[in-house]
Every structure is written in C-alpha cells, then in structure tokens.
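Problem 12. The chain below contains 66 residues. Write out its predicted structure in token notation.
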Amino acid sequence: MSWLPKANNFFTNFIYEMTEPLLGLCRRILPPNPNFPLDFSPIIALVGLALLRSLLVMGVLALGLK
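Solution.
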C-alpha cells in the first residue's frame, strides 16, 4: 500500500494495523535504505511465512507417519 496515495479510512487503517507487527519486525531485520525508495519488508515477510508454513507441514507429516 506504500505505492498508493495516503488515505485515512477504515480499510487502510485496518490493513496497516494487521500487517505492521510483522512488517515492523522485518524492517528491524533489514532497515529501509533512505537512498532507495522500495521497502523490502513485505518480501521478507512472505518468504518467512512460506518457510514457516513448509516447516509446519513437514512437522505435521513427520508426526503422522510414525
């Protein structure tokens, strides 16, 4: 949503409130560069969530195969 104009309405506030805890954590890991306008925290979050999902699925499958 950083590519869209700033809007102060229910939808944008809701999206911000729901995503900021995870994206804020990602921004602490890889702080934004003031000389580069793109924020990579959503990409880091998506890769991290995909990795976590894979680990959880492998764990569930490993428990089910015993």
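Discussion. The CA atoms of residues 30 and 64 lie 37 Å apart. Students who got a different answer should revisit the alignment rule from Section 12.3.
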